[in-house]
Amino acid sequence: MSKATHASAPVRRSEARERLLSTASRLFYGEGIRAIGVDRVMAEADVARGTFYRHFEGKDDLVRAYLEATDQAIRGRVGAAGEVIVSPADFLAAVAHGIGEEVCGAGFRGCPFINAAAEYPDRESPVHQAVLRHRAWFREVLQGAFQRLGAADPPRSADAMVAMRDGAMVAGYLGDARAARAVLEHGVAALVAAG
């Protein structure tokens, strides 16, 4: 299926599809994408092979759907915060705090997008493209907040915050999650203060 078809094809919603996606999300995030086969996803979701293929073209399509569902959940949380937090400085602090909470959460295994990009290095693959779309959206949100803040260089400030987020995600998984959260929040506060 072409990239254009993925963007325009309607998603068939069903209980079986949601079980497949929920099961795949848990397994892919918890154990790694390449380590999990579709047979295991189907077995744990209690879904027949024919039903799987009615909803997904194959594993890569399921992985793309997992990342897109994760992306939509994050967009929803960030959007909700943006609706109630008027100050761009407070919004940026809230985003950093939310990331810090995620890093310190039970079962944290790093960023699902960074993890997926490492397992799907081909930038043209639908999976890698889903990662890039998420990152572009996140950077755009941050850049908008830095623009509203009156930062001297909003694109550079957004790039710096994305890099700090990435670092906190990796450091939080590999080391002291609380320290990673504190460093991220401190770094974002410094960016905001620098304007």
Structure explained in plain terms:
Helices cover 77% and strands 0% of the residues. The chain is elongated. The protein starts with a helix and ends with a helix. It is mainly α. It has a domain at 59-194: Orthogonal Bundle (Tetracycline Repressor, domain 2).
- Looking at the structure, the CATH topology of the domain at 59-194 is Tetracycline Repressor, domain 2
Distance between the termini: 45 Å
* Helix/strand order, N-terminal first: HHHHHHHHHH
Estimated radius of gyration: 18 Å
Essential attributes:
195 residues, mainly alpha, Tetracycline Repressor, domain 2, elongated
Short recap of the structure:
The protein has helices spanning 3-8, 15-31, 38-45, 49-55, 59-84, 88-103, 112-119, 126-149, 154-174, 177-194. It is mainly α. It has a domain at 59-194: Tetracycline Repressor, domain 2, CATH 1.10.357.
Topology of this protein?
Layout: H1 3-8, H2 15-31, H3 38-45, H4 49-55, H5 59-84, H6 88-103, H7 112-119, H8 126-149, H9 154-174, H10 177-194
Helix pairs in contact: 2-3, 2-5, 5-8, 6-8, 6-9, 6-10, 7-8, 8-9, 9-10
